[in-house]
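Hi L.,

You mentioned the student needs an example of a multi-chain input paired with its predicted structure. This one should do, with 229 residues in total across all chains.
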Amino acid sequence: AQKVTQAQTEISVVEKEDVTLDCVYETRDTTYYLFWYKQPPSGELVFLIRRNSFDEQNEISGRYSWNFQKSTSSFNFTITASQVVDSAVYFCALHGDFGNEKLTFGTGTRLTIIP
Amino acid sequence: DGGITQSPKYLFRKEGQNVTLSCEQNLNHDAMYWYRQDPGQGLRLIYYSQIVNDFQKGDIAEGYSVSREKKESFPLTVTSAQKNPTAFYLCASSRQLLPGNTIYFGEGSWLTVV
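Structure written out for the whole complex:
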């Protein structure tokens, strides 16, 4: 069975601070895919990144960066110099190999950026 | 613009009534999905469809029904058998039902039972 754990239910930081959202996953598949989605107050889930299990390179996109570590089964997400527009619920999700294609979500982390 | 359109955004239902949520996509995706989101929880899969005229139950299919008569459309009916239907419903699609395909979401529909 697959499982995604986002232990941080809610985080609040002051604008311009850096913040890291944690994601720990469990899967028996050798090949798998990890995702992060952002859900702003409007409700739509916005795709942020996909990472496959064979690519452990960290990724940076503007103020966003992702740290994938297979040794600890973690796929953490860092926002640098946070802005009020970053306030949202962030979901980490896992997609397994054939037979496990359904996307398994964590329970999400609500991030509030205080101006 | 390409995307996934859900309607209505807000819907109120009386107990005992069936309601249908619409989902249309113009991304030319083969696979479509319905998820349910409850406050403070992650998303749970209701139904999914790999291709036209085919669909499979997800983790919480009881009390729901779907159809897939056209590639671009995947309506969800919440029946009176669904014990606790008040929730946020999200439709999604992906190019195919294959490992690694990114799933894209619509804006969601709020359903409230009154």
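You could point out the following to them. Chain A has a mean pLDDT of 93. Chain A touches chain B through 28 residues (CB under 8 Å).

Best wishes,
N.
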